[in-house]
Write the structure tokens for this entry.
Amino acid sequence: MNVEAWLPRDTSAVAVGADAVADALLKAGVELMRNGSRGAFWLEPLLEVDLGGERIGFGPVTVADVPDLLAALKSEPASHPLYLGPVDAIPWLASQQRLTFRRSGLGDPLCLDHYRQLGGYAGLERALDLSPQEIVAEVTASGLRGRGGAAFPAGTKWQTVLDAPAAQKYVVCNADEGDSGTFADRLLMESDPYQLLEGMAIAGLAVGATAGYIYLRSEYPLAQRVLESAIERARAAKLLGADILVSGRTFDITLRLGAGAYICGEETSLLDSLEGKRGMVRVKPPLPAVQGLFGQPTLVHNVLTLAAASAVLAEGAAGYQALGTGRSRGTLTLQLAGNIRRGGLVEVPFGISLRQVLEEFGGGSLSGRPIRAVQVGGPLGAYLPESLWDTPLDYEALAGVGALLGHGGVVVFDDTVDMAQQARFAMEFCAVESCGKCTPCRIGSTRGVEVIDRVVAGEQHEANLALLEDLCDTMEHGSLCAMGGLTPNPVRSALEHFTEDFG
């Protein structure tokens, strides 16, 4: 059958049967390209078909749907129950404002020609015409902040590494995406890997680094294969390695795998792991920007921050600065997960309310029951009740209500959730994942589980609640890193907003 079609091969699509659907389509003679996902995971496997020069969507498609779907393509495509119309016009996608993920799902993630046709490497080409200080000034003026959780101004970090004297500097990409309910890093690496490589090369030119490392979560085998191939192809095209684009400049990237430790998402623990040591949090100062990998100045960012740098250089600082609100500039990448009807990746300017996200994009709970609590910012983020869902999603507004944006994970719970057990989970998670270096985190989290169990059992209820609050204070102010320091967030928010669940 002479039909041109696209079907994602990213991890989420494959997990719900995309490979089997692809086999059925290929056997039927369909000309099929395995593209990256657009992030509409509630529609995966999402089949896109070229009809009259327009990409028409069908989904979620199963193997059993293939015969009838192909028959409908010959007659009336819109008559098929899985017909979605033009993909770009699907309201869930059309109402987003994609910048970092604008290429995701459009074609073969490993095709360099496709990437360049869609504006790829324009940022690197511009960076090669600028001095290191001019590149840093552009990033600073854009207002870009770290997308990994701390939201530290990227330009300040770049300037610190640039100013640090050293014969060797490094750029390290933290791709150890471990927060529950997050997948944006993985989606970008699987769907648009050259954007990350380009952003890292720009960062290397800016700070004077000639070597970069991607520290990849070991649970991402497909991302590993995609990145390995992308790095090899970029080197062959003189986009990595010595003499980048015949400029005389050098920057190369090495891929390294983590070993399943959540704590290695913390930058200093990650650096220890890269050096071949056990991942343990380092005391700061010195900052990694001054003394990082192998004792040298090191720029550490997560995937989305480095990817955004390519857009900043390509579009200019003013274009990036024009999006967002307050000190939160650019676009916000949210990942909808948990008990949500339309899960997936949403990219919008900062300032949208959580309620809008839950209703307009999420479509309410998957169970159909009322949503009771939403955890924003990963397992160390606060649980937000309905009374706080009108809070704008930006760094300062969330901090004002005792919450954090983190890596943009949004995990939804309906009214059957036991919030005392969720608070217990936060402490237990910390106990399991702590590196063990500092006492407040290592011992405090273990004692926290025990105290919550006593509270729920009704043992000296008021005294144990007071003890739990004291324990949270100790962990917050005494822990070496955010692992122990932020664990009190979900516990305190559950106690404050869902008191009835604690007996």
